[in-house]
Amino acid sequence: MASLADVFKEKERFNWLKAWLAIDIAKSGLEHLADNEARNFHQHIYSQVTSTLQSQSYTCNSCNTANLLRNQQCPVKICNKVCQEIIKEHRYKKCSWNNTSATLWQTRHWEIAKCYIQTDGYADKISIQDTDFNGVVSFMLNCKRFDSKFSFPITKGKPTHNNPACLLYKAREVHKAVRHSSIMKVTDVDLQDYFTSLNNLLNDSSYLSQDNVAKNAVVKLAQLEKDTLLLTTTSMMCFLDAVGTTLKQHLKGIAKDVVDASVNDLRVNTALCIDNIRDFMSNCKKELARQADIHKQDIDEHVDRKKQGIDDHTRRHKQDMDENADRHKQGMDEHADRHKHGMDEHAGRHKQSMDEHANRHKQVIYDHASRHKQCLDEQAEKCIKDIQEQFGNTAFTETTYKQSCKEMLGALTKYYRKRFCHINIFPLDDWAEEKLLDIYMPPNIQFMAKAGGYFKKTGKQVLKYENIFLSPTKPNQQIFIQGEAGYGKSTFLAKLVMDWCTITSEQSAETTLPIDDKTTRLSSNTQMRYSNVFDDLTSLKDFTYVFHVTLRESVGQFEIEKMINTQIVDSIYSSEEDRGKAYRLLNEIMKRERCLVLLDGLDEWTGTGDHHNLPTLADVHSLCVLLITARPWKVTEAKILDSQICKRLQLDGINNVLEVSRTLLGCRKDFKSRQDLDKKQSEFESYVRKFGLLEHLYSPMMCCLIVHSWAKGTKLKGSRCEQYSLLLECLFKKANIETSEFQEPPYRCFTESQNIQPNIEHLNRLAEAAFYLLFSDTQEKSLVFTITELKKFNLGELYPENFSLKSGILTATRNASALRSSSSFTFIHKSIQEFLAAYHIACNTNLIDDVISGYLNRHKGAYLGISQVFIFLCGLNMSAANKLSGKMDEYYAGRFKAAFQDVILAGYREAVANQQKDIVLKLSAYYLEFDNDIQDLHSIWTNNKSDVQYMKIYVPDRQLSQTGGESASHIEFDLSSCNKLKSLELNGEGILLSDFASTSTAEHLVGIVLKSADLFQCADPPPLLSSIKYIKMCNVTCSYTCLRCLFCTLLTVDDAVTFELQSIYIKCAEAEKREISAFIHKDFIHKDVNNASIVKTDNPYLFKALHGLNAKNLTVSIWGEGLNVDHEESLSQSLSSLTQLETLSIGVKYDSPRLWKALHGLNIRSLSLSIMGGGLNVDHEESMSQSLSSLTQLETLSIEVEYDSPGLWKALHGLNIRSLSLSAAWGGLNVDHEESMSLSLSSLTQLETLSIEVKYYTLGLRMALHGLNATSVSVSIWGEV
């Protein structure tokens, strides 16, 4: 590490460098947001464009930008639309086409982002890491998709003057000020302003304040501002590289300015010299002209004086004068020539002198600039070299990066081919190893979706790789494939790796053969198998790299990058120097490239014990996709959030098991001819159907075992313990050929075994080790362990004598990354370890209390983790299995979870397959559907009736299902002994609820029996469902006597109960069925009040069900057209039979005289009436008056009507009530009503409390209330407080 202050000492120069580094840190903080948005924009454009095409797999890499701008059409109609979408999202509709190449749009998302960088010069930048700060900010300013990512508006004009200011523009101004500083200095004030602007941007509340990358950048800015930031080697190199580039550009600018100034001075001096020469020549010409004029004048005078003499002597002197004139002319010409030549020589000498002077200055300036440039270059190179020598060179140039990636890709595919090319179809004999691609059959993988609070299979099969990695809207980032032990999860991942190697090798070889979605080319010596399942190898081309990690080898680690380094990089490279370079390269690859990381066996992995429930990727590795395999219980209990699961799939073994068995038989040397193979395959199919082994063949591991054992003459009969006993026997045979049988086999599955008894001591030691390692609190040692752990169980002999290794039960793996040569050990399969652990428990049942009980207490959810051990134990020792199931159910705490019920069900079936007796497995919560499981679950329930706490039964259809032409059996659940039952949910027309065992079962698949006491004595029934808290019935058929008996039963419960009735069917003699609905509130039962219920129906059979209850409170709401004769009679009889009833509340839509007749003579103290259809008419008024007068014990009366009427006041006249509550919500009282009201209220001599709600408070109302003797009078205005 180095401090920035160690590089430059001058304060303002140091400030300038800090500003540069602050800009670089700010860019790193923006990269995650900008790159993710660019990637999402890229995916959005292409999903939108390709959604209109016939095939969404169309691609185009032939269009170039220039052709698109000339409106040349794309051959597959993609690129023109993409171009339009890019322009549509540009803020100013002026894209920078010089920065981009349309050929790369579909494969590189950053190629589209560069269209929004307004300045040229970015054409060669392939990623955001190659793009400078100005380019990143320019992308965010010009692309409208960022409008929602910031709290401030990104506006046109000068946004820095807006309020709030555009922080992106301010950040760009900071970059300009620092980059274009001529003196390369920054004051303290300016530096503080720069830090403030960058911090404000990175702390923006809309998005960046929650972005971990931006948060990290803010922390670094704070450290830089306080001079506490320590620079890594990479950071220092990148920083000096940026500074060096700026210095070079700055010096080039200075040199250019100096040269330009010198040339300009030279031009000015030259111009002055030329002007002087021109002036000198002009003066010379003027002097010559003046001298000529003087000589001409003298001649003229002489001629005039001598004219006469000349004339006289013309002839005599003409020749002389001509000669004399010629001589003078010649003399003047020679004189002029001499002056002209002198001036030319003089001007030439001055011009040459000025040129030489200018050239000397130009050369001096150039030499000076060159020396300074060379000096600065040497100084910068020296600084970089010193730093590199001190810290080591860790940066990759683009050239070295590409070359290193190519080398690693080649090494990786070579490593995978060596590791996954062959597979042991049965790891006990040498013949069993075959090429994976020769014998592989596609698995049965189904989509899962969340329903009812947990994930269920949808029945839709996964047939393509693209179904796994792609969703309709976006790629999946974290995918889970769950499946039971030995079902082929690891083999599927191995096949995926080999497919990726195939398509990667073909792509790198640039073969001339076309590759489409149905192309699968294998090596010439590999048998070709055509299938339309997972044949889209081109879907794997999206992943530049695939990294396969076996999680059981990385227990205790949670960082995926370190797992890859340990398992793959250390296996490929040998020297520490090569590994160090590969580590750094891997980090760069996972940051830049789209990688697929395969994490195999989540159930065999444990983290560090903190919050890491899953292996994690670094935030900068956001391009990586995770595909994780696990057993179902692990996915359920790992507390994985729904947001962490992009897709969840279920692998249920092999698709076509009989075709796989034929392939396995064909691998044997004695079944090579087609005729022999057909015969053996037919015999094998008959065998598996006879002994019910077909379902076991769906597990590839069990399929191999069953096929191999049958071919060897050993026939299995459906017990898993029997299958694993045979597996152990075959393994023991490899290390010791001695044979002997048990005289009295300790367990049924050991009967007729030949190789277990001679090796019983080895078996006991292995079983002890398997148990204590599996139940170790140090879970990183439970599956992968060292020689030190093995020695504790006397299993640490050297290899030639080591029975465990020689037999193949244990496997050894050399640790490639260890400082000293060492090995780690595992059982060949986790299920083998689980079977041995179950055997040790069966032999030592005290371990359930001594070890397992504490283990379950310390590890929450572990009851599912040991499910396979429990299932094996059911086949070995029933007493121990019964006890362990009780422990598991205890920690399961009675909550319904399908996974735990499936475990108990599998254990029960294993016990039956091993002919166990006294099967009393503990299960307190049940979810039952009428399927293949219900008979076995009913058997388990029968032995748990007194401990059952939760029951959910769903039988949607009355019709009996037909299976093989035979009718399904009627199943009956007797609840008379279910004293701990807390929750009961019944749903479906196939369920009949009866109070005693029914003899008529033709219409119903499931019967629920209460077994109550005599119907006429049900007011005091025997204890039944004494712990019930919740009952829900929907579409269930029952009689009203049964429903009444159920009501009676609930009256005996001490705690509150919620009872929901939804469209249940009442069986009666008068009709085939009557449908009713009811809802019973949570306050159905009180400790001090017998019951209060709401019944939203006018069904007479429900009224009969209420007959004779010891209810104190009852609420009845009738929403029909009023009571008819039958209903009135039923209601009247039911209410009269409620001798303990004190409070009655009735709501009807319309009042009816039958209602008042039903209420006549009740001994209730409180009555509440709600009539929502209108006021009372004359006939009803009379009935109501008689009914209310008959209620001699009535003290409290509450009446609610929509409109008041005079009949109401007449009906209330003379009552002996103490409390009256009136509500006339939809109208005030008029004069006539006020008078009737006054007379009526005055007659209530015992009235103490009066409460009235009206719409308007009138003077007449006030007068009507005047003079009352009531202790309390309350008047409220409707709708006001």
UniProtKB/TrEMBL annotation:
Name any one Pfam family assigned in the record.
Answer: DUF4559
Disordered: annotated segments: 306-342
The segment(s) forming the NACHT domain are: 477-604
SUPFAM superfamilies referenced in this protein's UniProt entry, alphabetically: Apolipoprotein A-I (SSF58113), P-loop containing nucleoside triphosphate hydrolases (SSF52540)
PANTHER family, alphabetically? Answer: NACHT DOMAIN-CONTAINING PROTEIN, NUCLEOTIDE-BINDING OLIGOMERIZATION DOMAIN-CONTAINING PROTEIN 2-LIKE
How is this protein named in the record? NACHT domain-containing protein
Instruction: Identify the species of origin.
Output: Dreissena polymorpha (Zebra mussel)
